[in-house]
């Protein structure tokens, strides 16, 4: 879910002009078996959702669901092409960065009439998740499946050798002036090729063996697994409102100051350069191999590190300027393609996937935190059975320190503006370039659904 996924959105082909009209055929009404195509991008989640599909098919013997998986790099291109050809999957796992675009082109079925008719309780979900799928006109285009937050993944041996306890990790603080005790922590974890730590005399920042901290890329305008856990403690917000913000705050002095601090970690030798982290070997693979001591990552990646050679654990993001922690909370949800020939059957399936009956089973797999509150609590226990301190993620829901991911129909355009600017900053450029970038973003947002509240033509 997440930064890599968002950045990929900028390369997706534009939808063909002209909205498709939903076909409301009565296939299946006579008792004939209906087959639905259901797509997702995360192969790690397939076993959990296949379990739900098997149970659904037992309860609905006239409906068959074929689950198909595509990697993130192909997923949105395939769905877009399918919509153009009027052959998209009946149901697909959608992303908050994408559904606004599809909704704007009238490609998604509005679920609000079905939700009201069948009295689906939106209050069963974790706070804020259902609102992320609502349109400015009141329509709703997805039912939330799960949520995610960020934590700091760390190499247990390196942290123990540095003399830190779990209690120490939960009490780390951050500020943009000197980085607080969090910067001291990563400085001490950084070791040069002569065995000198980053906070010791004689440290050679140009010959580092192990970096105390690392990152995936520059973060564009999102920074979910980069700078957002720090910046969001300063009182900064992505936009004037969420969802459907119309004025974005990329020229805010707090944003500039935080990015300047973030880049300073590279200058000090505590963090690798942008060129290094984008050279082909991902940060997650590098921390698994022991090249980095810590890394901000999302809860969705715990399954990808549980068997790492270097034992990894998670700790919460540091306590920031406002005296609290912060994390982006994002959600994926099931959306229905408006051109489906089987809207009623597709709705029955989407509705089932958003029930405790399904989500409680998904929780047992410890892959995601399900969107339903009771199921989410079960997932915390399952994560802990797998050896992870799941409270590092769930603390943001429990303490209300999560910030819902920004929703707009123009995310691809935003990324195309912000990515080169944050790349330049993380390569040593001036943060004042954000002034012009912010102006361009806000000019783009004048055409968004949040302003016009109209379907795109």
TrEMBL record:
Compartments where located: Cell envelope
Keyword Membrane tagged: no
Family matches, as SUPFAM superfamilies: Periplasmic binding protein-like II
Matching InterPro entries: Bact_solute-bd_prot1, SBP
Top-rank lineage group of the source organism: Bacteria
Statement: the UniProt record of this protein carries the keyword Cell membrane: no
Annotated signal peptide: 1-29
Keywords: Signal, Transport
Pfam families in alphabetical order: SBP_bac_8
GO cellular component: cell envelope
Family assignment from sequence similarity: Belongs to the bacterial solute-binding protein 1 family.
Protein name from the UniProt record: Sugar ABC transporter substrate-binding protein
């Amino acid at each position: 879910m997440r930064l890599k996924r968002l950045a990929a959105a900028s390369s997706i082909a534009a939808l063909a002009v002209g909205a498709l009209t939903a076909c409301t055929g009565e296939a299946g009404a006579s008792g004939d078996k209906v087959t639905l195509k259901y797509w997702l991008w995360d192969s790690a989640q397939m076993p959990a959702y296949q379990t739900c599909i098997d149970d659904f098919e037992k309860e609905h013997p006239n409906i068959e669901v074929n689950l198909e998986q595509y990697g993130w790099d192909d997923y949105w291109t395939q769905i877009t092409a399918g919509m153009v050809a009027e052959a998209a999957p009946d149901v697909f796992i959608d992303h908050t960065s994408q559904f606004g675009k599809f909704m704007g082109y009238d490609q998604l079925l509005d679920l609000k009439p079905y939700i009201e008719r069948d009295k689906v309780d939106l209050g069963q979900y974790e706070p804020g998740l259902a609102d992320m799928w609502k349109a400015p006109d009141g329509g709703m285009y997805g039912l939330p499946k799960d949520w995610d937050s960020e934590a700091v993944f760390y190499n247990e041996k390196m942290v123990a050798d540095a003399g830190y306890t779990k209690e120490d990790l939960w009490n780390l603080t951050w500020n943009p002036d000197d980085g607080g005790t969090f910067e001291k922590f990563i400085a001490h974890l950084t070791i040069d090729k002569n065995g000198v730590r980053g906070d010791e005399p004689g440290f050679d920042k140009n010959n580092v063996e192990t970096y105390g901290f690392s990152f995936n890329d520059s973060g564009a305008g999102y920074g979910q697994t980069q700078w957002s856990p720090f910046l969001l403690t300063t009182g900064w917000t992505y936009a004037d409102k969420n969802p459907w913000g119309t004025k974005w705050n990329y020229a805010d002095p707090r944003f500039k100051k935080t990015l300047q601090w973030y880049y300073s970690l590279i200058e000090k030798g505590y963090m690798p350069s942008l060129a290094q982290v984008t050279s082909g070997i991902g940060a997650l693979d590098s921390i698994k191999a022991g090249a980095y001591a810590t890394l901000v990552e999302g809860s969705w990646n715990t399954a990808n590190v549980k068997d790492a050679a270097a034992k990894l654990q998670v700790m919460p993001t540091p306590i920031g300027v406002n005296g609290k922690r912060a994390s982006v909370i994002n959600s994926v949800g099931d959306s229905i393609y408006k051109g489906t020939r089987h809207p009623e059957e597709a709705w029955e399936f989407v509705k089932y996937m958003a029930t405790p009956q399904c989500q409680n089973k998904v929780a047992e797999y410890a892959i995601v935190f399900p969107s339903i509150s009771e199921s989410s609590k079960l997932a915390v226990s399952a994560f802990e059975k797998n050896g992870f301190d799941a409270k590092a993620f769930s603390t943001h829901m429990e303490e209300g320190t999560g910030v819902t991911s920004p929703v707009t129909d123009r995310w691809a355009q935003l990324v195309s503006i912000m990515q080169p600017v944050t790349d330049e900053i993380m390569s040593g450029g001036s943060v004042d370039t954000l002034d012009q970038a912010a102006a361009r973003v806000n000019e783009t947002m004048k055409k968004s659904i949040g302003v016009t509240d109209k379907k795109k033509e």
